[in-house]
Amino acid sequence: DGQCNVGDPDDDNDNVNDGQDSDPLDPNICRDLDTDGCDDCSSGVDNPTDDGLDTDSDGQCNVGDPDDDNDNVADGQDSDPLDPNLCRDQDLDGCDDCSSGVDNQADDGLDTESSPKLVESRHGS
């Protein structure tokens, strides 16, 4: 920006003055003014409304969002926290409990063997 750091109030040009900036030399780190758990400068400039990746578009950046894919399984318990169709197999039936897009052990995937016609045709009846 043509100013030496000594006289420049914003050394990294992220629109946050150095005295209020948690890392005055990194434009992607400044503060969390809106207290959502995400740095307001993750885009390179101070912008609390666009402060980080939001995989599920729920308005919470992934850093502060306990469920990044909105499948109703907390990220720490989710086998794939960014894919709503993969989470876990808590009922141990061999099917992912989130195959429908949300955690639902009763509806966790196609079961072709539950059809009587299919079972009969396999046995030649």
Chain-wise SSE layout:
Elements: H1 116-122
Structural features, described:
Helices cover 6% and strands 0% of the residues. It is built from one helix and no strands. The longest helix is centred in the C-terminal third of the chain and has 7 residues, at 116-122. The chain is rod-shaped.
In terms of quaternary structure, the protein is single chain
Shape annotation: rod-shaped
Overall pLDDT level: 87
Proportion of residues in extended strands: under 5%
Uncertain parts: 118-122
Series of secondary-structure elements, N-terminal to C-terminal: H
Distance between the termini: 81 Å
Number of helices: 1
Count the beta strands.
0
Structural class: little secondary structure
Q: Major sheet, described briefly? A: none
Radius of gyration: 24 Å
What's this entry about, in short?
With 125 residues, the chain is low in regular secondary structure.
What descriptors fit this protein?
125 residues, 6% helix, little secondary structure
